[in-house]
Amino acid sequence: MPTQRPARPSTLKRNLWIAGATGLFLWAALTVNVDITDLASLPAGLWAIASRMIPPDLSYLENAIPAMIESIQMAWVGTIIGAAISLPLGFLGAKNVSSGLVSNVMRQVLNAIRAFPELILAIAIFIPIAGLGPVPGTLAIGLHSAGTLGKLTAEAIEGIDDGPVEAARAVGGRGLQVQRWGVLPQVLPELIGFWLYRFEINIRASAVLGVVGAGGIGALLQQTITFGRWDKAATAILVVIVATIIVDTISGGIRRRIIEGSEAK
């Protein structure tokens, strides 16, 4: 007796998801009141601005490079602050090393921190407290980084092997000793990779924060655009692009070396 071909799997669920996603896109596109004529004129507007930036005023490098260094310093210090805060918060938020109540509460705290972007944290909290300059920008970067890195830390801890933890307990380790010798060595290489990746993101954030008076290359870029010095603005943008590429390349190599070992290329 010939074997019957199995029935074709139902595609109803997939089609419903596609229809729902399409409907959500159309609803969003129709309710934001986008003017098609504005979109059509966008290329001409971009070309008008770009033509004013060519050629860039390279003499402005003496101002742009120190400002970019200040942005990198803001990003680095902010990343260190975020990493230091996120490490204990991540342990508290991991369900396998913390109680259920503490873990759930800490997860919500981390969600609340991440809900506010660096720009809002700087404007609403740190600039009124610390005034204008790189300090409020650094603090805003540090706090927001703590929320993101804390979540990543908790997820990394939840994926550990229980063997080293049991071994640390078997030799008499208690509390922090178990976390230090059974958990931290397993997740530390991955966490360092997260920290370096966050540093790359924070460089971009520091440039944006300068627009609201938090120092760095963003403040310089805001000034040049406000006064219509497009050639100088082009120089500042080029410095941001080059610095970002250099930092991304270096930190990417370090991440690969840490995570993959000495044979990483």
Silhouette: globular
Q: What's the β-strand tally?
A: 0
Q: In terms of quaternary structure, what is this?
A: single chain
Give the helix proportion (percent range). Answer: over 70%
Could you give the order of the helices and strands? HHHHHHHHHHH
Structure description:
- With about 260 residues, the protein is mainly α.
- The protein is about 80% helix and about 0% strand.
- The protein has 11 helices and no strands.
- Helix 4 packs antiparallel against helix 5.
- The protein starts with 11 loop residues before the first helix and ends in a 5-residue tail after the last helix.
- The model has no long low-confidence stretch (mean pLDDT about 85).
Question: What layout of secondary structure does this protein have?
Answer:
Blueprint: H1 12-31, H2 36-40, H3 42-53, H4 61-93, H5 100-114, H6 118-130, H7 134-158, H8 162-170, H9 176-209, H10 217-226, H11 230-260
